Amino acid sequence: MSFNVLIVDDSGSMRAIIKKIITISGFAMDQCFEAGNGKEAMEVLSENWIDIIVSDINMPEVNGLEFLDQLKKNETLKEIPVIMITTEGSAERMQEAFNRGAKGFIKKPFLPEDIKKILFQVIGVSENGGYSEDKTIADECDF
Amino acid sequence: MGDTVKIKQLLMNAIFEVFEKMFFVFLEPVEEDVNYDMIASINFAGPVSGNIDILLTNDLADAMVQNMLSVDEEGVTQKLIEDCVKEAVNMIGGNFLQKYDSSKVFDLSIPTFRNESAMLTNNDAEAADTTWSLPFESSEGLLGVKMSFS
Fold first, then answer.
1. What's the pLDDT tens digit per position in A3-56?
2. DSSP string, A32-89
3. A20: which chain B residues are within 8 Å (Cβ-Cβ)?
4. A122-141: per-residue pLDDT in tens?
5. Subunit contact B102:A91, Cβ cutoff 8 A
6. A-B contacts at Cβ under 8 angstroms
7. Could you count the other beta carbons within 10 Å of the beta carbon of residue B2?
8. Which residues of B touch A13 (CB under 8 A)?
9. pLDDT digits (tens, 9 = 90+) for A57-95
């Protein structure tokens, strides 16, 4: 089984590095879609099947938290797991993102291993291909 | 005085972490100020507010793009340089604020970029306790970081 991934970040360089890390991580990525902000991401989602979203918070037009709100309101899209990748790593901001539906969090700067680990955790697939227990990363965070 | 030293150390730690993890650039603090080729800036607001500017020489910016994206010299474009340098100031800002107080929420602005020559030199003696100017060197080029804090 392979997964379609949507990377949402206003930095083309950051999208490229995340895509590269996912590609070499061993994660079973099928297609990779990109968007520069939450508005563009909703357009991609309206036309493509996406299994997992990796999104920045601090973006122009529609930021990452507003994007989470839009997903939550949409019956079709609200179950897609979203991992936030951001520099804003305060406990309160992380909790806010989890409350709005995020399933995981990575703080920039990150190591490739950080992205690989959370992708496998959130999608519920272990690195050797088996399915792991379904839980959000928030369950493991001590706020 | 103690706070000033602590803030400077937190800022330096944030700079080292971002450049080592994301750009594979290892910086050393230096004393001398130079003419840099570009500036990226970000503002932050919350329990404290301020601004961070990073100033870079062309050779360092080129190396950052090459190292981050694994492209060769011909693959480095002005757009990629702008993108990487803005991302660097964004990460330094977020990383510093998290180290400063991870229990508080800060808002970071969208980073800006200017392709212009500039120096770090600050002649405003009254702002000495609220402004930090930190020059660095690396084998790839030179970096200056300036933060004002209130």
1. 899 999 998 889 998 998 888 888 888 999 999 999 999 999 999 999 999 999
2. EEEESSHHHHHHHHHHS--SEEEE-SS-SSS-HHHHHHHHHH-TTTTTS-EEEEES--
3. 69-70
4. 887 655 555 444 444 454 44
5. yes
6. 76
7. 6
8. 65, 68-69, 80, 83-84, 87
9. 988 899 999 999 999 999 989 999 999 998 877 888 888
Q: With both helix axes pointing from N to C terminus, report the angle between B78-100 and B58-69 in degrees, rounded to the nearest 10.
A: 80
CA dist., res. A4 & res. A52, Å (int) = 7
With contact defined as beta carbons under 8 Å apart, do A125 and A117 qualify? no
Question: Residue A59 carries which side chain, given as an amino acid letter?
Answer: M
| pLDDT tens for each residue of B7-50 | 999 999 999 999 999 999 999 999 888 899 999 999 999 989 99
Number of residues assigned to chain A: 143
Work out the angle at residue B74's Cα, subtended by the Cα atoms of residues B68 and B75, and round it to the nearest 5 degrees: 40
Beta strand ranges found along chain B (DSSP E) = 28-29, 38-45, 50-56, 107-108, 112-114, 131-137, 142-149
B10 part of contact set with chain A, CB < 8 Å: no
> Per the CB < 8 Å rule, is A16 touching B69?
yes
Structure tokens, A101: 């539906």
Q: Is A93 on the interface with B (CB under 8 A)?
A: yes
